[in-house]
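hiii, so i know i said id send this last week but things got crazy w the move. better late than never?? heres the sequnce for the chain we talked about at the cafe, plus the structure i predicted for it. fair warning i was half asleep when i ran it
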Amino acid sequence: MTTLLLHTARALIPASEIQDAAILIRDGVIEAIGPREGMSLPLGAEELQAAQHTAIPGFVDVHIHGAGGHDVMEGTDEALAGVARTLARHGTTSFLATTVTASPDDICRSVEGIARYMSVQYETDQARAEVLGVHFEGPFISSARRGVHPKEWVQLPSAELLERFLRAASGSARILTIAPELLGAVPDVYKRQAEKLAAMNIPSSF
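okay and structure toks below
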């Protein structure tokens, strides 16, 4: 087990700021954070000096397509590791690999690669951000408000296609960006309930 005591100029925690801070890390897990003067160096621990720096919680990015010259749509271990290394250098500790509107085959190939990478991402000593899962951005978006997404691959929501995407993701799907106004975006049962509420002048969030 590796034990580190990191000494920083300050540490930002949810409710306060600690000046002249110490962070005790055991086997890669933060165990304690507090003022350096009140933190003893455990037996066998290594003390790291970063007295000119500020320690802050890592960023969690839920919508990112790539970094470091790579795109998550590449779906390869090399590309995803490149993205993860770049994000780690800039303070992001975890992220959702976000796909773009593309052909169904390309989306499936990408998320299969992301799921595969997630199963081996911890087999390294390199500093990398952790891939928490997949964020599907498209293809079930508005063609009128598609931004940079290619129009030829934008389509109406399809339960069958979504099921295909979910199978390819192998349990790693976390977010689906979808235009709720599109035909098929909201299940019929919700539509009927919304209509009933509207008839009674009751606001609905459906």
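btw The two ends are 51 Å apart (CA to CA). thought thatd interest u
miss u guys!!
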